[in-house]
Amino acid sequence: xxxxxxxxxxxxxxxxxxxxxxxxxxxxxxxxxxxxxxxxxxxxxxxxxxxxxxxxxxxxxxxxxxxxxxxxxxxxxxxxxxxxxxxxxxxxxxxxxxxxxxxxxxxxxxxxxxxxxxxxxxxxxxxxxxxxxxxxxxxxxxxxxxxxxxxxxxxxxxxxxxxxxxxxxxxxxxxxxxxxxxxxxxxxxxxxxxxxxxxxxxxxxxxxxxxxxxxxxxxxxxxxxxxxxxxxxxxxxxxxxxxxxxxxxxxxxxxxxxxxxxxxxxxxxxxxxxxxxxxxxxxxxxxxxxxxxxxxxxxxxxxxxxxxxxxxxxxxxxxxxxxxxx
Length: 326
Prior knowledge:
With 326 residues, the chain is of the alpha/beta class. It has two domains: 4-166, no CATH class; 171-325, Rossmann fold. 33% of the residues lie in helices and 24% in strands. It has ten helices and 15 strands. It has helices at 4-17, 58-68, 111-125, 179-188, 202-205, 220-228, 242-252, 266-278, 284-287, 303-318; strands spanning 22-31, 41-45, 50-52, 77-81, 99-107, 130-135, 141-145, 153-156, 161-166, 171-175, 194-198, 214-216, 233-237, 259-262, 290-291. The strands form three sheets. A six-stranded parallel sheet has the order 12-11-10-13-14-15, sandwiched between helices. α7 (242-252) links the parallel β13 and β14. It is elongated, with a radius of gyration of 22 Å. The two termini are 29 Å apart. The mean pLDDT is 90.
């Protein structure tokens, strides 16, 4: 699955390089149900051609009609859909009953705009996340360093500024193949993760088949140590084989991965923790990065239920939520 944000930015650059003016749109906030999350992007031309989406289709149709009528030619602005008491409420009612705030940025095909979007493109293709800051009053754009975790959109209404997090596509490295790992791969793909499975055992790899998943025939620890992890990477070990799981954890804590976890009961996890301290030489700070037992406590029993608990916990950390806030 190609990163949808990258598709939008690639097309924006292609149109700009041909001298076309574009309108770059970002979902700022949603209230109630909404088919797209804050941070979702769409780019459009004045003739209605577009890539990306803001909703399930109802908002796009109205936005593109108004764009063709010249309604968004005057500069940067925000638009609210679905609010029955707002100026645009009667015009569009979202089928899901939600409310949607959209940032609309007209962009000219000049050197400054090209440079700005090229930085976005490099960030999406690279390893380090950035924060894109937009001054709603002046339209000024700038980038800042960012950790990559937390809400994709942060609004400072007092300063009339929004911060939009951008970064590489989320990656899931599965250390070893097991029924739980296979279920995790199935869950992770529609969640937008790039999924990589590592297992040196030929007989085990022969029975693994999940569409769109990259399979590496090496020890997970070797693949992780090769530089495969960036700040948007989750590493999970789900085999119950310490020869695979332990080595993967020892290497994973040396990387910037945002989530590191290994499967096992409370008792198994306690034994593994002692082993990682003694044989792996891990300190307390490194040990604190490893989620063990892995996943949310859902009472999971089957491989699919365990995988659901694992992926839910990964998404929780990715979104910057504490367990206590659930």
